[in-house]
């Protein structure tokens, strides 16, 4: 769980950095590249967060099923 959490934090940090880079860029093509990068990192963060929620939900389901058996 620690590794997954740190991955999520890493992805979010990279998205934030790409956003900041886009804001600072003076050239259009650099700004667009940074925005694409931000979107890609954010998609990875969203996927990691969704996977973690599903993992926790599945663990709870299994724990509850084990208690009722």
What does this structure look like?
The protein is mainly alpha-helical. The protein has one domain (about 1-69). It has 2 helices and no strands. α1 packs antiparallel against α2 (about 30-69). The protein is rod-shaped, with a radius of gyration of 18 Å. The protein starts with a helix and ends with a helix. The mean pLDDT is about 90.
Salient structural properties:
69 residues; rod-shaped; mainly alpha; 0% strand
Task: Summarize the SSE layout with pairings.
Layout: H1 2-24, H2 28-68
Helix pairs in contact: 1-2
Summarize the structure.
The chain is an all-alpha fold. Helices cover 93% and strands 0% of the residues.
Form type: rod-shaped
- Give the mean pLDDT: 91
Helical segment count: 2
Total domain modules: 1
Largest sheet: none
End-to-end Cα distance: 27 Å
Q: How many beta-strand elements?
A: 0
Which structural class matches the secondary elements? mainly alpha
Order of helices and strands: HH
* Parts with pLDDT < 50 across at least 5 consecutive residues: none
**Radius of gyration, whole Å:** 18 Å
Query: Which percent range fits the helix content?
Result: over 70%
Fraction of residues in β-strands: under 5%
């Amino acid at each position: 769980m620690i590794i997954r959490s740190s991955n999520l934090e890493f992805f979010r940090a990279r998205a934030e950095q790409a956003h900041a880079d886009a804001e600072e860029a003076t050239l259009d093509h650099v700004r667009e590249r940074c925005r694409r990068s931000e979107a890609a990192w954010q998609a990875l963060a969203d996927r990691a967060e969704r996977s973690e929620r599903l993992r926790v939900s599945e663990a709870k389901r299994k724990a509850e099923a084990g208690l009722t058996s």
